[in-house]
Amino acid sequence: MIWFSVSAVPWLAGGLTNDTGRNVLWAIALAIDFTAVGLRYPVPRLHQVPAAQFISVAEHLSERFQQFFIITLGDAILVIGMALSSGDLSAGHFAAFLVALGSTVLLWRIYVHRAGEVLPAAINAARQPAGFTQSAPFTHLVMVAGVVTTAAGFDFVIRNPTGEPRIAEVVMMLGGPALFLVGRARFEYEIFGRVSPARLIGILVLIAAAPGGLHVPPLLVTTTAGLVLAGVAIADTIRSHGRPPEPPAPTF
Fold first, then answer.
1. I need a labelling partner for 30 at 20 to 30 A (CA). Which of 38, 136, 177, 219 fits?
2. Residues β-bridged to residue 43
3. pLDDT interval class at 245 (50, 70, 90)
């Protein structure tokens, strides 16, 4: 309560401020909250939250991580729908809408496949569950940031599928999926102690495609990102097809 009382000040102040002031205040609030959880909420004389308390809520936290990610995907779908409804329904706009929607489904598929399914079991199997429950929020934060960035790219490409993208738009359209795959690779490492080559290859392909993305229509750029995500999802399916479920082997 003491830590949240401190971070509540910049949170509330930011809600009463506009533009740059709000961004600065909310960044400070986030820094306070993440510092607190990273240090297990130390308070003079009360010390830190016991590690056992993190263990007791492991399954509850794993469900919240998954729900948080699903809410983020829902926000991406909302952005896609609003972008389509705000313009005309030409073939280019509708094609961009379909690619964005399909890519969102692929983001869900890649997240939930195996690692997302066995997250509670992985926490229970961990040698140090408290360390796991402290690491997983940051891993999910990276994946959520990737989805949010990707959604911003969807908004641009649906509104302007055939225009000339700037560096910022290309970064969103390709960097968002790449950031998601970085977080997902870390998540996989936490659960199984390994990283699938398909994720690393996908990240490299997205990075390599960035320079060319400045010279082609946005629809082609976001389609490239969608194809990379499809390739990762297909590789996951091939890897697990006909094999017994892989048990978690957490690194903590």
1. 177
2. 47
3. confident
Rounded Cα distance, 119 and 108, in Å? 15
Enter the tokens of residue 5: 């009382």
Mean pLDDT, to the nearest integer, of 87-115? 89
In this structure, how many other beta carbons lie within 10 angstroms of the beta carbon of residue 53?
13
Residue 32: closest CA among 55, 8, 50, 56 = 8
CB 206 within 8 A of CB 228: yes
Record the pTM. 0.84
Residue 212 near residue 88 (C-beta atoms within 8 A): no
For residue 29, give both structure tokens.
């609030």
**Region 211-239: what's the mean pLDDT?**
94
Annotated domain spans of the chain: 1-49, 55-240
Residues 68-94: tens digit of each pLDDT: 899 999 999 999 999 998 877 788 899
Indicate the class that CATH gives domain 55-240: mainly alpha
Cα-trace Rg, the chain: 20
